[in-house]
């Protein structure tokens, strides 16, 4: 998945009100960028961090920049836009490049199911069980090489796990797919200390038959693509 417009580097001044970030461009101008991430962004919103912004000339948009990446200035990047995983995964699903989710002819997004929920992807095909796939963007890293989810309490995430568990019990495939938007991690685990309720819902879902998948991403200022699976350590 390539970014529609070339990204420009900047320095983060502050992130506030969850969806706003003041940044300083290379020419010294200070601008406000849209931050498409409702999470805590723990460890990713420190003043002075190098970031990459996507400019736009859409007259309907008040903010002319969107925050896309954190550049750790050691060769590694973290993607902060939570809409990217779904777009990148869809392209990989259509190309048949997702291990364990290949061979489905039907790929539909945002389909209503459960109790007033929408599944990220519903995969279908002749002679195959429908596969309900929920996608989560993973950006937290507190120990070298270890990605964790969630980065804050997520009641909505726990609800999604309960919905997936119900699908698994009814005989469908149910998949919790964690996409790690970091290039510096090789393993994945739960941040149980940050949200014990999510960890409990995760274990219940796994016992119900929900499949757990996790892949990393390849990230550059040009775009984001899926990388290889990560080791899951729960």
Automatic annotation (TrEMBL):
Pfam families for the chain: SfsA (PF03749), SfsA_N (PF17746)
Stated name of the protein: Sugar fermentation stimulation protein homolog
Residue ranges occupied by any SfsA N-terminal OB domain in the UniProt entry: 13-74
Family per similarity comment: Belongs to the SfsA family.
Gene3D superfamilies: 2.40.50.580, 3.40.1350.60
Domain Sugar fermentation stimulation protein C-terminal: 84-222
Organism this protein belongs to: Pukyongiella litopenaei
One GO molecular-function entry: DNA binding
TM regions (residue ranges): none
């Amino acid at each position: 998945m390539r970014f529609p417009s070339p990204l420009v580097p900047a320095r983060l001044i502050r992130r506030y009100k969850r969806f706003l970030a003041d940044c300083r461009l290379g020419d010294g101008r200070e601008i406000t960028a849209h931050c498409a991430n409702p999470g805590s962004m723990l460890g990713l919103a420190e003043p002075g961090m190098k970031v990459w912004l996507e400019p736009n000339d859409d007259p309907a948009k008040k903010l002319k920049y969107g925050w896309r990446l954190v550049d750790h200035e050691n060769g590694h990047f973290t993607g902060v836009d939570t809409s990217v995983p779904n777009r990148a995964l869809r392209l990989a699903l259509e190309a048949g490049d997702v291990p364990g989710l290949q061979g489905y002819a039907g790929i539909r997004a945002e389909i209503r199911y459960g109790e007033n929920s929408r599944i990220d992807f519903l995969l279908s095909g002749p002679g195959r069980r429908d596969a309900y796939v929920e996608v989560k963007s993973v950006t937290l890293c507190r120990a070298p090489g270890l990605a964790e989810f969630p980065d804050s309490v997520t009641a909505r995430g726990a609800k999604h796990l309960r919905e997936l568990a119900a699908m698994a019990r009814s005989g469908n495939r149910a998949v919790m797919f964690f996409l790690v938007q970091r290039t510096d991690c090789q393993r994945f685990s739960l941040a149980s200390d940050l949200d014990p309720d999510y960890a409990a819902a995760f274990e219940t879902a796994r016992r119900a038959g929900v499949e757990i998948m996790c892949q990393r991403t390849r990230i550059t200022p040009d775009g984001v693509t899926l990388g290889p699976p990560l080791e899951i350590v729960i």
